[in-house]
């Protein structure tokens, strides 16, 4: 079973099983329950594009 599916199985309102115990039983890290991905900013995307172009032009730089 995938980690994403196991995270969906966690019941935050369960009356007798704490989040810590549920995560331990499911083999999921507790911090993954709180993670919310953010989109990259326009500046970050621009810099990553510039680094990609530089690497493709001169891959021997490392």
Give a structural overview.
This protein is mainly alpha-helical and 62 residues long. It has a domain at 1-35. The model has no long low-confidence stretch (mean pLDDT 94). It is elongated and about 60 Å long. It contains 4 helices and no strands.
Q: What is the average per-residue confidence, as pLDDT, rounded to a whole number?
A: 94
Low-confidence spans: none
Strand content: under 5%
Q: What is the C-alpha radius of gyration, as a whole number of Å?
A: 20 Å
Topology record:
Layout: H1 3-8, H2 19-26, H3 31-34, H4 42-57
Name a few traits of the molecule:
62 residues, single chain, 0% strand, mainly alpha
Explain briefly what this protein structure is.
By secondary structure, the protein is mainly alpha-helical. 55% of the residues lie in helices and 0% in strands.
